[in-house]
Amino acid sequence: MDHTEEFLVFGATGQQGGAVARALKAKGKKVRAFVRNPESTKSKALAAEGISLAIGDLFDPASIDRAMVRISGVFSVQTSSPAGEISDAQEVVQGKAIADSAVRQGVRHLIYSSGGAAGKGPTGMGHFDSKSEIEAYVQSLPMISTITRPASFMEMMLLPGMGLPQGEFTFFMRPDQSMQMIALIDLGRINAEILMAPDRYAGKIIELASASVTGKDLERAFTKAAGRPIAYKRFSEELLANNAFLNRLAELLDSGLLAGRADLSALDKVFGHLTSLEEWLGGAGKPLFEAALNREGTEVALR
For 66, which DSSP code? Predict the structure, then answer.
């Protein structure tokens, strides 16, 4: 691939797309970010970093087509329904629209960022099954594509309402139960490397994770990072009984579907060192952890 290639990143003002756009930029690549509002703080931050902006709307195919002109590789990710912005059906419409546009505009390679629970059969949760539908559609098209399935983000643990200010941390795993997670910095650089080597990753489905951790691992790492005891607890049975969304996620973890199936040793061998929980807490996650530790309020952020 020549030095004039340019990559188009969707979701660049969000966590995944932002990580990929910045990783590509750090590798000296030309990056175009698809944004709805160029005047937003996050859009302006991208522009200030030398990332060009393509203005459009994911419900406007013509604007997607314009953004795709002279693009060699695309990173496609959509907002999921739990964020409250779109429905599962709308997510599917957007995912297919991006893929269709890539074919129309002759884009060489598309990465679709799916999810760890996708592509393994029906889950009973629309925002996972929607990704399975988009995966299948992308793979059916006459275009080089790669599916990446990231595990839960380490950053997700530091949303409000997990109990850190009160000296505890509540999450999905039982104390001895393992769950794979990924640091956004790893997600960004791995997807960037895949975009830069389309032939090597053509047609592949790659499960992504940085580490596998248990509730006890979280307790130890958070206690060390906080400098004071942080007790780990799984979400209470009462909370799960009263929250169908969280309860189904816990059930999928217990069944193994959400535990993660990434081959960590293979990923490390191919893409280089993966970020451990401890390294993340001492690096990119440090300011997030400290903010969560000192945040007031106990609202449960995951609904």
Answer: H
**What is the tens place of the pLDDT at every residue in 230-277?**
999 999 999 999 999 899 999 999 999 899 999 999 999 999 999 999
Q: Is the residue at 110 inside a domain?
A: yes
What CATH number is given to the structural domain containing 294? 3.40.50.720
Helical spans, DSSP H, in 13-125: 15-26, 41-48, 61-68, 88-104
- pTM across the whole model: 0.94
Residue 220, classed as helix, strand or coil, is helix
Which residues, including other chains, have CB under 8 Å from residue 205's CB and lie 6 or more apart? 119, 135, 146, 147, 148, 149
193: in domain: no
Q: Give residue-wise pLDDT tens across range 62-89.
A: 999 999 999 999 999 998 877 778 999 9
Closest CA to 191 of 37, 2, 45, 12: 12
As for how many domains the chain has, the answer is 2
Q: pLDDT-based confidence at 1, cuts 50/70/90?
A: very low
Let me know: does 154 contact 181? Beta carbons within 8 Å.
Answer: yes
Range of the domain at 273: 152-183+209-303
Residues 272 and 141 both lie in one domain: no
Check: CB of residue 144 under 8 Å from CB of residue 110: yes
